[in-house]
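Model it.
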Amino acid sequence: MTSKIQSLNDTYELNNGVKIPVIGLGTWQTPDGEVAQKTVEDALSLGYRLIDTAAAYGNEENIGRGIKRSGVNRRDLFVTTKLWNDHHGYQKTKAAIDESLTKLDLDYLDLYLIHWPNPAPVRDHWAELNAESWQAMEEAVQAGKIRAIGVSNFRRKHLDELLKTAKIRPAVNQIYLNPSDMEEDVTAYNKELGILSEAYSPLGRGGLFANDTVVSIAQHYDKSPAQVLLRWSLQHGFVPLPKSVHRERLEANLQVFDFTITAADMAKLDGLHGAAQVANDPDQTDF
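Modeled.
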C-alpha cells in the first residue's frame, strides 16, 4: 500500500522503464462524435495526460481529434488502446494496430493491450491466438509503433500461458478493480510478476456511491464518494481510469491529492467485497 502519490504529475515506472501517469481518463461508453472530442479536450485542459480507449469502444477517431484539438504536445501524453476479440492472431493483430494508429491519427501508441484473454468464438484455442497476437505486438514495439504492451481482464492462468512464449513481459494488466472486487489473486500475481494493475470502473460503475461505509468515510474527509474511491485506488498502487463526459466531474476526479486515507479506513473499504458489481469471469462470458 502506498500513500506517497501526492500530485497529478506523479508517475509509475513500468517494467520496461516507460513512465505512466498515476490517474487517467477512461472512455468506455463515451459517445462517439463531438462528445468524445470535447471530453478529451476538457480532460487534457484540466491536466489529465493519460487517455484510455479501445477499438471496441468505437470512438478512437474522435479521441484522436480531441487530442489534436487540445494542442497538448504529443510527447506529454500517454495514449492507450486495445485489441478487440475479432482481431486475435498474428496477421489480424498487425492490421488492428495499424488501424488504431490511423483512427487515432498518431505515429505511435504508449500502451497497447489485449482486451480480452479468451473470446467466446475462439475459446478452444485462445492461448495459441494470444501468443500470435503477442508476437505481433512485440514486433510493433521493435518497430517503434508501441512503447509498452500489456493485457486486460487476464487471470493468473491466462498470464501463465502468455509467458510461455512471450519475449516481452506484459507491463500492465487492466482489470475491473474497486472495493467491491479487489481481485486479490490477480493483483497479487501482477505485483509478483512486475506488472502494473490498472483499474477500470474504479468507481464500481456508480454502485458504491450510496454505500454507507463509503459515504461515511467520504464525509469524514470532506470528499465525495468518488474521490474517496479514487484515492483508495491510488493508495493501493493502482492506476484508476475514471470516466465522465462532464467537465465538473472530470475536474472533481482530480481533487484526490490533498488527503490520505488512514490504514483503518482503507481496511473498511477493503472489506466491501460484493457491495456492488464484481468482475466478470472471462472463462464464462459469451463474447
